[in-house]
TrEMBL record:
This is Kinesin light chain. PROSITE patterns: TPR (PS50005). It comes from the Eukaryota. TPR repeats lie at residues 125-158. The keyword Repeat applies. Pfam families: TPR_12 (PF13424), TPR_7 (PF13176). InterPro entries: TPR-like_helical_dom_sf (IPR011990), TPR_rpt (IPR019734). It comes from Pseudictyota dubia. Keywords: Repeat, TPR repeat.
Amino acid sequence: SSSSSENSTSSETLLRNYEDVLELAKTRLEDNAGDGELHGYIGTILHRMGNLHDREGRYEKSIQHYVKSLQVRKITKDHKSLGTLLNVMGISHAKRRHYRKAMKCFQDALAMRRHTLGSRHPDVAETLHNVGNCRARMGRWDRAMEAYAEALDVKKEVLGKDSISAMKTLHNMGTVHEHRREYDEALRCFGD
């Protein structure tokens, strides 16, 4: 369709712009090797390039950019950004059905996010939800339910029980109950 062709073209243009800016930033970095702000900027550009590739379904390329961003982010010790990046990498791995790699990223993201944000934060709940999704796709229903339950607890507390985010987690818990043939529990989750 014309729309997807236009999106692809604008995506390619954006990617080229990012590449140009990245080259410029790298050149500046050679002159200012100790510039932490510039490292952070490069990490952000690489992260955004990874996001673009991910949106286009080019998961291998997205992971390559995320890994480069991760290397730069480690230099800056920007733990909040590291947590976000690891979470996004986990999602990208999960899309490719690389669940073990995804789980490693989610677990690292969870540790990073808990360390920087505390345990009762929406970003921590988001990562717990992703852990639940990954475990469910691996058929680890009990472990998925544990992650979803913890995510739901945090979401209800910090976002409210009627938040869309909490409802998504509750829905996924219902799906796990359904897979385990616990239909009454599933209905309670779907009806809540």
